[in-house]
Specification:
- The complex is a heterodimer of chains A (121) and B (109).
- Chain A has no helices and eleven strands.
- Chain A is mostly beta strands.
- In chain A, the strands form two sheets. In chain A, strands 2, 4, 5, 6, 9, 10 and 11 form a seven-stranded mixed β-sheet that branches. Chain A has a four-stranded antiparallel β-sheet with strand order 1-3-8-7, with no helix packed on it.
- Chain B has 109 residues and is mostly beta strands.
- Helix content of chain B is 0%, strand content 45%.
- Chain B has no helices and ten strands.
- In chain B, the strands form two sheets. In chain B, strands 2, 4, 5, 8, 9 and 10 form a six-stranded mixed β-sheet that branches. A four-stranded antiparallel β-sheet of chain B has the order 1-3-7-6, with no helix packed on it.
- The chains are: A mainly beta (121), B mainly beta (109).
- The interface between A and B is medium-sized, with 25 and 27 residues.
């Protein structure tokens, strides 16, 4: 049973860089069938796609966040990571990692439990 | 602003049928996927592709699409179906970029 687990600091200071890691267990991140994505949800608000990565390193980012986001993959550790720079209070959210199926049946089919990140001094 | 539009709230009487819709130009070319989210929990995929249910999702959940509108239908809504529902698809540019709808709060009366 494939599982994803987010990890990282729960508190980040304004203007600093948010760094999270998603560890994939029960399966290989190097599967050719999937991308791996990050999604966030501010308190009381909806879901926002941040970006996705393929095991080869190909990335796609939300244009609204692209200038601040870097997603990377470490196949040797079966992990992928998110870095979001110059954070503000607006980046306070629950951050989820998820496995992403591709065409024709696009879907985020397996999700991590999420990790709350608060941006505050 | 989201490129996928959902009604903020919908209600349904217990045991009745409810349709939750998602509108957007990209839906003319790509399927939507649908997610159920209960308070304090991660989203769960309930429908993807033309009308596919992941293992463990009850068959009262179904999906359809027409033109620029995708729909999630719950036939015989149960109390446990009360949740937020989000649609997701590619953006209208046709690239890999993904977008979520704003979400629909379903209340089961």
């Amino acid at each position: 049973q494939l599982q994803l687990q987010e990890s990282g600091p729960g508190l980040v200071k304004p203007s600093e860089t948010l760094s999270l890691t998603c560890t994939v267990s029960g399966g290989s991140i190097s599967s050719s069938s999937y991308y791996w994505g990050w999604i966030r949800q501010p308190p009381g608000k909806g879901l926002e796609w941040i970006g996705s990565i393929y095991y080869s390193g190909s990335t796609y980012y939300n244009p609204s966040l692209k200038s601040r986001v870097t997603i990377s993959v470490d196949t040797s550790k079966n992990q992928f990571s998110l870095k979001l720079s110059s954070v503000t209070a607006a980046d306070t959210a629950v951050y989820y990692c998820a496995r992403e199926q591709w065409l024709p049946n696009d879907a985020f089919d397996i999700w991590g439990q999420g990790t709350m990140v608060t941006v505050s001094s | 602003s989201s490129e996928l539009t959902q009604d903020p709230a919908v209600s349904v009487a217990l045991g009745q049928t409810v349709r939750i819709t998602c509108q957007g130009d990209s839906l003319r070319s790509y399927y939507a996927s649908w997610y159920q989210q209960k308070p304090g929990q991660a989203p769960v995929l309930v429908i993807y592709g033309k009308n596919n249910r992941p293992s463990g999702i009850p068959d009262r959940f179904s999906g359809s699409s027409s033109g620029n509108t995708a729909s999630l239908t719950i036939t015989g809504a149960q109390a446990e179906d009360e949740a937020d529902y989000y649609c997701n698809s590619r953006d209208s540019s046709g690239n890999h970029l993904r977008v979520f709808g704003g979400g629909t709060k379903l209340t089961v009366l």
